[in-house]
Amino acid sequence: MEIYTELIDRLERARARDREALLVFDLDGTIYNNELRTLRILLEFAHLHAKRFPDLQRQIDKLPCAVLQYKIADTLRGLGLADAEMIDEVEQFWFDRFFTSEYEIHDLPTPGAVDLVNALYQRGAVPVYLTGRDAPNMLLGTVQTLLRDGFPVGTVDTRLILKDRFERDDTEFKRSVFEHLERCGDVIAAFDNEPGLANLFRERFPEALVFWLDTHHAPDAEPLRPDVLRIENFLALSPP
């Protein structure tokens, strides 16, 4: 509740200066849980190839999302599945599908995210969805899921910014957008699940509240700055 009040105060101060109050949200692992996307792909592979890999099919059928690790190979080895050829095949099957609009529709919002974004949007904040997804492969599914789940999107008082190509580095891409954000308004808060990116926002926007979502992130991530706020979801930030 205290943080929500602080967000409102910062929002109103930005608007009093005739500046847009920007709320920057990453998507995967931040306002969206994409573990169900991975699980759906693993289930599809396991059922399509159940005759070849019966142990895989039995294990994946009862696999909870909580067991999923960042890397597919680590997930499979954690289940006692060590066949290197099978792991390579599953990884390629996952890679060919995970970064597509067709499969991202299996994502679900992080608890509290829809309520928080809408509450602040209705008070005049501008949600900026700044994601490492790429437009050629994932724009359509991104818009579909945002609309489906009730996030404000597609209007003049919202922003949706995706990479121009898949191969582009996420950190370099987000850094390249910072100057544009500064021209548009005041970043009052930023949310990301990657410690390095949360640190980057904190360094570039020292007046903003920066949140790290403790969901999942790339292995060997840099240490999180002590002045970045840690949250598991958005429930504690939701309006009363």
How do the helices and strands line up, and which of them pair or pack?
Layout: H1 2-16, E1 20-25, E2 32-33, H2 35-48, H3 54-61, H4 72-78, H5 84-98, H6 101-104, E3 108-109, H7 113-122, E4 126-134, H8 135-149, E5 159-163, H9 170-184, E6 185-192, H10 195-204, E7 209-213, E8 229-231
Parallel strand pairs: 1-4, 1-6, 4-5, 6-7, 7-8
Antiparallel strand pairs: 2-3
CATH architecture of the largest domain: 3-Layer(aba) Sandwich
**Could you state the order of secondary-structure elements as H and E?**
HEEHHHHHEHEHEHEHEE
Mean pLDDT over all positions? 96
The main sheet comes to: 6 strands, parallel
Strand order of the largest sheet: 5-4-1-6-7-8
Structure report:
With 240 residues, this protein is of the alpha/beta class. It has 2 domains: 162 residues, Rossmann fold (3-Layer(aba) Sandwich); 70 residues. It is built from 10 helices and 8 strands. Strands 5-4-1-6-7-8 form a 6-stranded parallel beta sheet. A two-stranded antiparallel ribbon has the order 2-3. Strand 4, helix 8 and strand 5 form a beta-alpha-beta unit. Helix 2 packs antiparallel against helix 3 and helix 9 packs parallel to helix 10. The mean pLDDT is 96.
Highlighted features:
10 helices, alpha/beta, 47% helix, 2 domains, 240 residues, 6-stranded parallel β-sheet, 8 strands, Rossmann fold
Give a quick summary of the entry:
With 240 residues, the chain is of the alpha/beta class. Helix content is 47%, strand content 17%.
